[in-house]
Structures are given as structure tokens and as C-alpha cells.
Design brief:
about 150 residues, mainly alpha, Lysin, ATP synthase alpha subunit C-terminal domain-containing protein
Amino acid sequence: FKGVRPALNVGLSVSRVGSAAQMKAMKQVSGSLKLELAQYREVAAFAQFGSDLDPATQFLLNRGSRLTEVLKQGQFVPMPIEQQVVVIYAATKGYLDKIAIPDIGAFEVGLLKEVSPALLETIRTEKAISDSTDAKLKELCEGYTKGFIASTT
């Protein structure tokens, strides 16, 4: 789908298994992802024809391009599910909104270096995001994002 491999069109993708096969933690962090990506692709198609975009449309385009970027993965570079949860949490909660698109890969690598092994283990074993895990993820993402932005500006 427009240069992204594998081609993914969330508006058309259908699966018999669906989210039933997903870990609860992944469902929790990616709940809005499909809708946001579908809206982004729809608006992006029309936005190329117009130059005056309202702030809500600009926000949607910025968020969608960052979500698309964070979903990219190198060939033969699998990522453990608990790391995926951390990265998608950061993306869907808006921590990437102020990160330049070319810097998202570096942000992702740095964030995964900062996350404690204990937090990753908690996500892996509990298979869900409790209130305390959510608070730890929020603290991690807020602190790391602030430092990352300061180091890149």
C-alpha cells in the first residue's frame, strides 16, 4: 500500500482469527490504531489536492504518518511482543507527535534501550497492562521523549 511492504490497507484487511489471537496487552495499546490509520489514509488521499488544512486534519496527518513509520520493521528483524507493546503504546499515546519522522527509528531504538527488563517481563508474563504497568509506561515514555526532543533540537 503506497510503498509500504507488506502492503497493508487496514480498511480492507480481514482475518478470520482477528484480534482473538492477540495478547490482551497488544489489544489495549493498539485499540485505536486501526481506526487512526484508516482515517489517515483516507484524509491523506484528499490532502494532496488541497493546501489549506484545518488543525484537526493536520494533526490526523501528522499522527498517521508517525504511526505508519513506527509500524515499519526491517526484514529478518523480529521484535518480541513485549517490545512491540512498548513502542505501540508510545505511538498511540502521542509521544511520537513531536518527533521528526526521520528520527522515529532512533527514538524507537533508544526507548527500547531505556525500558527496564523488569517492565518487559511484567508485560510478557501478565499479558495485559495493569494500572501500575500503565503508570510505568507513561513515566518511561514521558521521560524518554523529553530527553530525546532536547537532544535532537
